[in-house]
Write a structure and sequence with these properties.
The protein is 36% helix and 16% strand. By secondary structure, the protein is α/β, with parallel strands linked by helices. Strands 5-4-3-6-7-9-8 form a 7-stranded mixed beta sheet, sandwiched between helices.
Length: 284
């Protein structure tokens, strides 16, 4: 096995907390003020964290992560853990295969993830470029860095299911994501941040060339907005990955609506029951 493969194998495990999946670990619970309507336990946790902080302490939780959760990404964001990504080894493996493919085949364009949480998947993308000495592609991170938007059920009624905007665990600050990149030695000029709601930020990327676009917005709105802004710039031979295609019907419907509207016929390939992807081989 060559050094690049060994490095990427280790990086996969580290980012998904797979280096010690059976060990008990202490994880700091973030102190972020809950949104109006958040669950009672979120407010209790916030209050406890504030009291402890004034006394010089941090609120933490001891837990263990099972190997099967690491492999399949079956994490509950309400249960903190030490990794930088919740997508699991199968979906990380898919990202690796796609990025390695576009490098090998010379497919032009940058890489982007929409909805990055702690940045683990994007860190992995940057690590793959580093492992193969690729210096002419950038990794973009598009996120609000304050959690998911409240569902706009007037324009997007399928998002009526969602209370994800009340999950404080999904709100990770940009500076914390940058710190995660820095800890792995991968924060540099090839990493670009696009901060804000997708409807306001992603249109600014019109005309940009992409080789891999990875969508992790959960909602119909977040998914359709990302597709509308990014997919026209996806190079032939590039990959479109949708993290929650098999998890949230609203996300799946956004993908299917977009594909029908633009006559996209490339087959969708399942990754692990949640994530799915296809390779672009034709233009509409």
């Amino acid at each position: 096995m060559d050094l690049a493969s060994q490095y990427l194998d280790l990086l996969e495990l580290a980012l998904s907390d797979g280096l010690h999946p059976s060990n008990s670990v202490l994880v700091t619970v973030p102190s972020v003020r809950p949104n109006r309507g958040a669950r009672a336990r979120s407010w209790l946790r916030y209050g406890a964290a504030q009291v402890l902080s004034r006394k010089g302490y941090e609120l933490a939780r001891r837990l263990s992560v099972s190997p099967s959760f690491v492999a399949e990404g079956r994490y509950d964001p309400a249960v903190p853990f030490a990794g930088e990504t919740m997508i699991g080894l199968k979906r990380l493996g898919n990202v690796r295969a796609c990025v390695e493919s576009v490098i090998q085949d010379g497919v032009p364009g940058d890489l982007i993830e929409t909805g990055v949480w702690r940045g683990g998947c994007a860190i992995f993308m940057r690590g793959i470029l580093a492992a193969y000495g690729v210096g002419d592609r950038q990794v973009w991170l598009a996120d609000s860095f304050c959690g998911l938007p409240e569902p706009d059920t007037i324009r997007y009624p399928l998002d009526d299911f969602s209370s994800l905007h009340n999950q404080l665990e999904l709100a990770v600050r940009r500076q914390d994501v940058e710190a995660n990149f820095r800890r792995y030695g991968l924060l540099d000029a090839q990493v670009q941040f696009l901060e804000g709601w997708f409807e306001n930020t992603l249109p600014s990327l019109a005309g940009h060339a992409w080789s891999v676009i990875r969508l992790d917005g959960d909602l119909y709105q977040s998914t359709i907005e990302a597709l509308e802004s990014l997919y026209p710039g996806l190079s032939l031979g590039g990959y479109c990955i949708v993290d929650d295609f098999g998890t949230y019907p609203a996300c799946r419907q956004a993908v299917e609506d977009y594909r029908i509207k633009h006559d996209i016929e490339e087959p969708i390939v399942d990754i692990d029951g949640s994530g799915a992807y296809w390779r672009r081989t034709a233009r509409p």
